[in-house]
Every structure is written in C-alpha cells, then in structure tokens.
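Appendix B, record 7
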Amino acid sequence: MIQAESCPLNAICPYGGRASEGEALHVVRQGLQFSPDTVYVVRSGCIRISERSGDLEWASFRLPGELFGTRSLFNNDMKRARAMATMDCQLCRLPRRLLLGRSQDNLQAIQSIGQAFASEQALLQASLYRHRMHSDARVADFLLEMCRRLPEMDKGAAPRVELRMSRSDIACHLGMAQETLSRVLKRLIDARLIEVKGRGIALLDMAELRYLAVSGKEYVSRL
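Structure tokens (predicted):
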C-alpha cells in the first residue's frame, strides 16, 4: 500500500495527508461502484474504469498511487463512466467541492490538479491507442506497461508481475474476446517470450516483447 506522502495530491490534500486517520480512507470490496463527483487515489488493489462512446466500450485500470475521477473537477464527464474494484482495495476519497475549494487562488493546488488530470488522461489515451494494434502487439504492450506500473515480484532474473485483474477484464481493456487473449498468451508462451503461473507473468524476453509492441503487428519469430 502506498503511503500518504507518496500521493500525487498530498500537497493539497484537504485532510492534510492524514487519510488513514479520517474519513478519506475507505476499504472497498470487489465490485463496489463509486461516486462520479469525487476524485479517488488508489492506495492498494486495482480499479477498473469502464467507459462508452457510441458503440465503443473500453476499460482501463488504476493501480496503487494512481488517481481516477479527475475529470469531475472540470465537468460531469465521469457520470458516463463506471468504476469497479477488481479486488479488495483501499482508496482515498477526495470530494470535488473540497479540492476545488483549495484550488482557489492557490497556484500549487492548480498545478497539482492539472498534473493529476494529465496523468489520468495519458493512461486513457494509451489504452485507446493500443486498440489500433494487432492482438499480439496489444498483449505485449499491455504486459510491458504492467511491468512499469506494478511492483516486480522478486522471484528470478526475469521481470515478473502479479496481475490484479481477471482475464475477462484484461480482454475488455484490450478490445478482444477472452478466447483471443488466451490464444495470444499461448503463442507468447510457446515462443518463450513469457511464462504464466496463475496471475503471475514472467517476461522472459523483454527485447522481443518491446519489438513486438513497437511494431504493432502479429508476432513472427525472428530466429
């Protein structure tokens, strides 16, 4: 679990960074939904954000140290989104009215909110851009991103991450059927690019995974 001093909004927290002592810190169970008029900081666990625009529906994830709901500070756009926990989580809940109240005539607060908004938008744009790739490249790019955003499991030379979401959630995030995701994972396993044990995935060949992600194409062995 991240500590309060590591929170991106710690400098302007209405609770003075003492979330564990006040009403801001919440323990939520898997599947619980959230208010669209609040900014949340994930302290532990994983949150799945689902959104729809026309016929397109996509999902993105928020991990410890990341925020969601920053768009509620500028408009009511978050009312079209759904946020659900993929596992038991701890969250800091920061009501919109409190954050906006602290941002009036406060340059540091305005900068912190702007940076938080930009960070959340970057995660959204990355997930949308991934939909342009071939399914093999999407999975490779996703695994590399999780390696950057999740703490590594210290169990060998190869980077290893413990995913905090189900395969159905990952498939929705990547815009593919769960069966397609399973086939891609098997191809990458057979090619010795990854090793899968439960939700733990070891990235055996980082260079090849990066090449696949950058190419955006179907995997073809270069050996």
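Remarks on this record: The radius of gyration is 18 Å. The chain has a mean pLDDT of 79.
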